Amino acid sequence: MCRYLWWKKTMSPSYLLLSAASGPPPPAASYENAEELLQEMAFSGFKPSPFEFRWLVQAYGRAGAFSEMLRVLESLHESGIALDIVSANIVLSCYRDYGRFSEMISWVRKIHQSGISFPFERSIPF
């Protein structure tokens, strides 16, 4: 039985990715398996939602796999899903957790250039 059929009978992709992204970071292989499952599901006709992509971004970011995190963000963009404030905040928090403040500043600039606004921007002058 292919893994997609197993998934279809046992759990949702959101649950799988949620379990990979929450709690202490598991080995990177767990994220790779979750990503392979998403690809397999897409090949079988299931289109992953922004929710599944975000959880995978967060899972890689929490593990400190930033190149993988950015690669998934790029695939999100290539699939026609625009960067939103939720995804941007996930990236910022992952960089913060690892003390990578220069990358955080680069992301804040990218967010502003893309036209995404933070809800508090109206009340705090920059």
TrEMBL record:
UniProt KW keywords: Repeat
Superkingdom classification of source: Eukaryota
Coiled coil: none
Pfam family of the protein (one): PPR
Keyword hit for Repeat: yes
PPR repeats: 49-83
KW tRNA-binding (keyword) present: no
InterPro entries reported in the protein's UniProt record: PPR_rpt, TPR-like_helical_dom_sf
Similarity-based family: Belongs to the PPR family. P subfamily.
Name of the protein this chain belongs to: Pentatricopeptide repeat-containing protein
Biological classification of the source: Eukaryota, Viridiplantae, Streptophyta, Embryophyta, Tracheophyta
